[in-house]
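It is worth pausing here to work through a concrete case rather than discussing structure prediction in the abstract. The textbook approach is simple: state the sequence, then state the predicted structure, then interpret. We follow exactly that order.
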Amino acid sequence: MNFLVVGPGAMGCLFAARLKRAGFHVTLLDYNQKRAEEINGRGIMVEGVTGKYSVKVPTVTEGILEMPDFVLICVKSNRTEEAGKAVKLLVGPETVIVTLQNGLGNCKILEEIFGRNRVLGGVTAEGATLSGPGKIIHAGHGETVVGPAGELESPCEEIVSAFIKSGFNARSTDNINELIWGKLVINVGINAITAITRLKNGRLPQIKGTRVVMEEAVKEAVDVAVAMGIKLPYPDPVSRVREVCRDTAGNIASMLQDVLNEKVTEVDFINGAVVREGKKLKIFTPVNRTLTYLVQAIEETYHERVQGGRGTTLNS
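Step two, the predicted structure:
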């Protein structure tokens, strides 16, 4: 089975390394030539819950030697369309596209490029952080779910089998949209607030201001999901978000990592997605709207930050 993994971020590198280590043919696609050369030179280096190891994974910026059976899209949501169009030039009509991204709307974008019958949605709760080009810290295990499931020997079941062989806790489902929304609601309650406050996950429920904003953002997302007929995969969304904050207390959320590295965030596909879907349904989502605008304002002004610290005197 041949895989093309698109995007050398934490998840892309983790899945590429584990699949290659399990004996599958894997190629990693990057748009950055210098980074691709670094990864080719030393391989993908992993440390954490699965031990410390390195895996040589061929990394290219264009052209692949073998036609992939599966493409894993692991880029940021704001690059989904660009990545999909680039991949379309490299794959055949039978290649199946799988998204393991955060946010809402990735499946729809990919379906418009490849066709609905060739795209599988996916969510993963694996915890990984990028510490350098091709270097990741695998902080924790979590479930990976792909769907719609299809028949026993469907492409969905094939890739789930490959993930299991590679050491992932994986399964298929016919209700992948509900799980995508389930993950979205959690991200809505955590990511943007950490990006604005620069706090780790565990602090959000402990501080009154962040706790209240988190709860209100989650409730807005739930209102939209309910109006769309989405059944979330947990009974109490606010409690679930608090639980995730506790379980990942020391984590630096992905959106905060983007802000710290002065990169474009996925806020438009997370909180912004709630705002767009709410607007279609005439559901007011002021907290998510405000969070989206604030994170976007931070992105637009990375080089205008006022620096300060203890003992700093600012003259008025």
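Step three, interpretation. Residues 176-197 form the longest helix (22 residues). The mean pLDDT is 94.
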